[in-house]
Amino acid sequence: MRILITNDDGINAPGLRTLEAIAGEIAGPDGEIWTVAPAFEQSGVAHKISYTHPMLIAELGPRRVAAEGSPADCVLAALHDVMPERPDLVLSGVNRGNNAAENVLYSGTIGGAMEAALQGLPAIALSQFLGPANINEPDPFESAARWGVRVVRALLDADAWDTEDYRLFYNVNFPPVPAAKVRGMKAAAQGFRPDTVFGVEPHRSPSGRKFLWIKGGNQQVPTEPGTDAAVNLEGYVAITPMRADLTAHDALAGLEAALG
């Protein structure tokens, strides 16, 4: 199996090393692992592409390339320049921090998987939820490392992709607990944390200039029962099927009636 991996934390991120190990076990001894990842951290860039300026790419080793761009850029670079053949699977992550609930909309990790799906490839985004029970562990990615292969194989064995125009991809969040306390896997819808929104925090520099830091909310708030963050906080791996189609299909009939 030929696997492409990328992330949004950057090519030197520890989560990418975890993903390399997961991909290596999935691909097997005769497989190929290609890494095309951002040269610098790209957290929060969502599905951004560098449409208005070129990106520099640098080969760091065999099948290992850094790109000065977003995760979606990295997927495009891999498919249309770096790799001689298309991959069988694209894995994005393992992100440091959850990409559940509203975080999905900002995530570069999700953006990489989404771009792969738009290019017609099976894709999975993987993220490690952090919390009091695992953030200070020697390896905060331990749950992802222990359960990652199991999750990816489960999706491959289920042949859980389709050929729709907006193709399915999968968002996987590992719970914020040590690996020994993971209770299993659950399919879960994307949730919503009503009081967890991004904002800004102003600061003054020594020269008196004003700067704004983007500030997130409390990540330990559960979403509705059975949805992604709630499932994670109960100790389960959350697996969410997604599409890039943002149409609110449930609102179409009402809108048509209102328009007369």
Automatic annotation (TrEMBL):
Record keywords, A-Z: Cytoplasm, Hydrolase, Metal-binding, Nucleotide-binding
Entry cofactors: a divalent metal cation
Cofactor note: Binds 1 divalent metal cation per subunit.
Location relative to the cell: Cytoplasm
UniProt: a divalent metal cation binding residues: 8-9, 43, 95
Enzyme Commission designation: 3.1.3.5
Enzyme class: hydrolase
A Pfam family reported for this protein in Swiss-Prot or TrEMBL: SurE
Superkingdom of this protein's organism: Bacteria
Residue ranges of every copy of the Survival protein SurE-like phosphatase/nucleotidase domain listed in the record: 3-193
MF (Gene Ontology): 3'-nucleotidase activity; 5'-nucleotidase activity; exopolyphosphatase activity; metal ion binding; nucleotide binding
Reactions that this protein is recorded to catalyse: a ribonucleoside 5'-phosphate + H2O = a ribonucleoside + phosphate
One Gene Ontology CC term in the entry: cytoplasm
Function recorded in the entry: Nucleotidase that shows phosphatase activity on nucleoside 5'-monophosphates.
NCBIfam families referenced in this protein's UniProt entry, alphabetically: PRK00346.1-4 (NF001490), PRK13931.1 (NF010541), surE (TIGR00087)
Name of this protein: 5'-nucleotidase SurE
